Amino acid sequence: MNVVLLGPPGAGKGTLASRLVEEFGFVHISTGDILREEVAKGSELGRLAKGYMERGELVPDEVILGMVRERVGDSKDCFLFDGFPRTISQAEGLREIVPIHLVLYLKIPEEEVVRRLSARRVCRKCGANYNLITNPPKVPGVCDKCGGELYQRPDDREEVIRKRFRVYLEQSAPLIDYYRKQGILREIDASRSPDEVFSQAAEAIRG
Ligand code: AP5
Questions:
Q1: Which of 28, 31, 152, 177 is most buried, by the most CB atoms less than 10 A from its CB?
Q2: How far is CA 20 from CA 1, 29, 78, 146, in A?
Q3: Is 86 an annotated catalytic residue?
Q4: Matching CATH number, 3-108+159-206, of 3.50.30.30, 3.10.580.10, 3.40.50.300, 1.10.3720.10
């Protein structure tokens, strides 16, 4: 089964993805994580993506589709796509790469997104995700898991968060109807606790 996690920035897609990978063994493809790795490496792709990401805009569809096509290859694994597709054109491209069986739509209001993302901190070394309000590290600024330094993503400043939310409404929200019409969309109340979000998603996957 191939699953898509759809929802605004800060809906909790990455947090849910880690739990679903642990429970069901999906291969996790987060286009945001791949792009951040490329930016950190200073590759050609990273240099191209950096400006779009810092402004809270989408990286061009053909770049994203090329990246996903390369990751999926001709593997027969079950994939969990996180933050992809983000436009109808990406969804059309994805159809030619692998079939999608289930789309989990994480629904959440804008103010909760701003609250969560302004307080998010990420480990520079292992990528672990913290929240200063709901899930703080034991020692401020230090990762509980690996001792790495915690940082705030450059796109987690309030004005960029609001821009990302607008971009989501304009370019990604049409995917809700697109997948609903295909009969594969399941709505998740993402404003609940991480455990409750996980159980709604696990129930949808188990059918
Ligand atoms: P990307 O990295 O995909 O960012 P995003 O979609 O904006 O999502 P986030 O990572 O910000 O949030 P999330 O939903 O994963 O939430 P999280 O679990 O971290 O993309 C970044 C950029 O890359 C884009 O803006 C774009 O430029 C580019 N890009 C990426 N993919 C692209 C594509 N397909 N096409 C074009 N461009 C693309 O949780 C957030 C916070 O809330 C954390 O602190 C967490 O601890 C906390 N939290 C999570 N769940 C809960 C809960 N249930 N209750 C309380 N707190 C919670």
A1: 31
A2: 13, 12, 12, 22
A3: yes
A4: 3.40.50.300
pTM: 0.95
| Boundaries of every domain in the chain | 3-108+159-206, 119-156
Given the residues 36, 116, 120, 121, the one annotated as active site: 120
Ligand 1 centroid – CA 204 distance (Å): 21
Instruction: Kindly give, in sequence order, each residue whose CB lies less than 8 Å from that of residue 105, ignoring residues fewer than 6 positions away.
Output: 6, 7, 176, 179, 185, 186, 187, 188
Annotation says 13 is catalytic: yes
Which residues, 6+ apart, have CB-to-CB distance to 91 below 8 Å?
Answer: 85, 175, 178, 179
Tens of pLDDT, residue by residue over 83-95, are 999 999 999 999 9
User: How does pLDDT run across 105-122, given as a tens digit for each residue?
Assistant: 999 999 999 999 999 999
Of 50, 153, 162, 192, the catalytic one is: 153
How many CB atoms neighbour CB 149 within 10 A?
A: 12
Concatenated DSSP letters for 39-79?
Answer: HHHT-HHHHHHHHHHHHTPPPPHHHHHHHHHHHHTT--SPE
If you measure from the C-alpha of residue 147 to the centroid of ligand 1, how many angstroms do you get, rounded to a whole number? 23
